Amino acid sequence: MVDTRNGSTVTEFVLVGFEQSSPSTQALLFALFLALYSLAMAMNGLIIFITWTDPRLNSPMYFFLGHLSFLDVCFITTTIPQMLVHLVIKNHTLTFASCLTQMYLVFGVGVAECILLAFMAYDRYVAICHPLTYAQVMSRQVCVRLVSTAWFFGLINGILLDYMTFRGPFCRDNHIENFFCEAPIVIALSCGDPQFSLRVIFADAIVVLLSPMALIVISYARILASILGKAFSSSRGKTFSTCASHLTVVIFFYTSAMFSYMNPRSTHGPDKDKPFSLLYTIITPMCNPIIYSFRNKEMKGAMVRALGRSSLSRAESV
């Protein structure tokens, strides 16, 4: 164990997580988070399988949806399994390299998802406001480029933010008051002045959070204007419902991320950080399949077909 009191360099961190909770509370949290994690993995895994194998779901919306579910699987697996282990065992230490890697994955996948949500909003805008040119504007090649762009900027951004977080030595307290390595908390533990790194991360958050959010707001504002300009119909109500669902995901994800990375550290604390961290690390990945997919008739039909094929193959094997 590292002795941080005599100024020696920190080589490992301790994730405080929920260790101050009673054993009964930890057992309850373990059962709850395990259920949520299993549910999120199962639903997102089903969506990935369906969107990548069902030929009827070949539109850009389902192409993006499959990649969103893949990002959610990556995102939730980066943090939640470790938290579940720490709810069972008493050793909450994490090596320097493990913390760096986890933070890079959280940054990379999180930023990629921010950008992908913006592209999905743009896709809905083109589909609703410019249906005649939709196939040309959102061709398969364009969709592949957009997804690749989201991944590229996410992974590159992760390198920048990891560098800003770990650029200085750590010689203070090595206890992280959260259940995973979150950048603002880790930066506060460094030996030097953390303000420069925090300002860079704040500026980066403005770009990677507010820019996609602006595109999302503009896209849905134009969709709303287009819908209101048409006579009332059943398709109008369906479009309203779809847009409201998508905006729910955006509000969940962006508000929790902005609280974590765009608020002054003086307003933070373990009781405030953990709920928001849970919101964007487990609640949003679990809600995405429900909001984007299970209210969609085509997705429901694809799920029935997939489950039917699975049942048939099991019956034939017997």
From TrEMBL:
Which keywords, in A-to-Z order, does the entry hold? Cell membrane, G-protein coupled receptor, Membrane, Olfaction, Receptor, Sensory transduction, Transducer, Transmembrane, Transmembrane helix
UniProt cross-references to SUPFAM superfamilies, sorted A to Z: Family A G protein-coupled receptor-like
Query: What region holds the G-protein coupled receptors family 1 profile domain?
Result: 43-292
Localization, per the record, is: Cell membrane
Q: Which residues cross the membrane?
A: 27-50, 62-84, 104-122, 142-160, 200-223, 244-263, 275-294
GO MF terms on file?
Answer: G protein-coupled receptor activity; olfactory receptor activity
Record's keyword annotation contains Cell division: no
The keyword RNA-binding appears for this protein: no
- What InterPro entries is this protein classified in? GPCR_Rhodpsn (IPR000276), GPCR_Rhodpsn_7TM (IPR017452), Olfact_rcpt (IPR000725)
Give me the Gene Ontology terms describing cellular component: plasma membrane
- What is the recorded membrane topology of this protein? Multi-pass membrane protein
Where is the major localization of this protein? membrane
Task: Give the family, as the similarity comment puts it.
Answer: Belongs to the G-protein coupled receptor 1 family.
User: What is its biological role?
Assistant: Putative odorant or sperm cell receptor.
PANTHER family attached here? OLFACTORY RECEPTOR (PTHR26453)
Q: What is the name listed in the Swiss-Prot or TrEMBL entry for this protein?
A: Olfactory receptor
Task: Report the source organism.
Answer: Muntiacus reevesi
